[in-house]
Design a protein that fits this description.
The structure is a single chain. This protein is α+β, with helices and mostly antiparallel strands. The protein has three helices and six strands. It is globular, with a radius of gyration of 14 Å.
């Protein structure tokens, strides 16, 4: 955790946790400029997850809205995410939220909005 939090791209405000009745219901992790040149105004969604009891309740979309608000305030103009080609639900989710496939490899698609 210490090395993770010491990265230049880490900002705790880009990490979102949704709780319900003391349980973690979902999370989203976004970092600014995790690779490439500083000042690129790029952010990357490392992970998004929703507990099974909370799926299909719009929680992922609410987390995405919070992430976009953070990105806007942090000066991030482009967001990216890597998704396995076999994860159709994630591909549809990101497409619904304005992401487009800009790169596809054997196992992953890189989505940028």
């Amino acid at each position: 955790v210490q090395s993770f939090c010491s990265r230049a791209s880490f900002n705790s405000k880009g990490y979102f946790i949704a709780e319900y009745a003391g349980q973690m219901a979902g999370f989203l992790a976004l970092e600014r400029e995790p690779w490439g040149e500083a000042g690129s105004q790029f952010g990357y969604i490392y992970q998004i997850g929703i507990a099974s009891d909370f799926r299909r309740k719009n929680l992922a979309s609410l987390l995405m809205l919070e992430a976009r608000n953070f990105a806007r305030q942090a000066g991030i103009q482009k967001l990216g995410v890597g998704v396995k080609n076999s994860n159709r639900a994630a591909l549809e989710f990101f497409k619904k939220h304005g992401f487009q496939c800009v790169f596809s490899s054997q196992g992953f698609q890189i989505q940028i909005t």
